[in-house]
Amino acid sequence: FGNTIDEDSYQRETTPFNPVSPYGSAKLFAHNLCQNYRDSYGIKVFCGILFNHESPYRGSTFVTGKVVKDAVLVANGKKEKVVLGNLNSARDFGHAKDYVRAMQMMLQLEKPDDFVVSTGISHTIDYLVDYVFEKLNLDRAKRLEISNKYLRPNELHLLRGVSAKFRTKTGWKPEISFEAMLDEMI
């Protein structure tokens, strides 16, 4: 979606796509290709528009993995600080287990379609840092550094999805909270 949001500050299947990164552009290309094959050839292809899904296996190139792994290293005396960029961006984070369950449910549907899968709740990176630092008893003033090195050239400000269409068709809802997910990652 990029920074395109509906008037209510959410993104859904009807929200226009406007990627702000090569990664987002590649995902949009794949999405359009799947729609084309579904519409042109009748192939049973579902497009899941999955918002951020995290787990303890999340790599440190992604912000949740980076914050948790680096904070644990700081807490264990193996690293001096956690270094991040923009703390104000907000994401709709869910647990990968919930999203895998959603994908399985999606594939059981008779009619292929496009579906947003999201929690509907956004958290800022600032909140993520606060939560993890508090759990690990780290002093944010001493152990967090902000670096321009980690600022994106075209920042994505807010991701927050509405998965009402998918929830209505399947009864799916996320079961693992953001905080429980972070506890597991820590």
Structural overview:
With 186 residues, the chain is an alpha/beta fold. 40% of the residues lie in helices and 12% in strands. The protein is built from 7 helices and 8 strands, in the order H-E-E-H-E-E-E-H-E-E-H-H-E-H-H. It has helices spanning 22-41, 63-75, 96-107, 125-135, 140-143, 164-170, 178-185; strands spanning 47-50, 53-54, 82-84, 90-91, 94-95, 114-117, 123-124, 144-146. The strands form 4 sheets. It has a two-stranded parallel sheet with strand order 1-6. Strands 2-5 form a two-stranded parallel ribbon. Helix 2 runs parallel beside helix 4. The radius of gyration is 18 Å and the shape is elongated. The chain starts with 21 loop residues before the first helix and ends with a helix. The mean pLDDT is 96.
Summarize the structure.
The chain is an alpha/beta fold and 186 residues long. 40% of the residues lie in helices and 12% in strands.
Rg on CA atoms, Å? 18 Å
State the oligomer: single chain
Topology, number of strands: 8
How far apart are the termini? Answer: 30 Å
Question: What is the typical, i.e. mean, pLDDT?
Answer: 96
- Helix content class: 40-55%
Number of helices: 7
Structural class: alpha/beta
Strand order of the largest sheet: 1-6
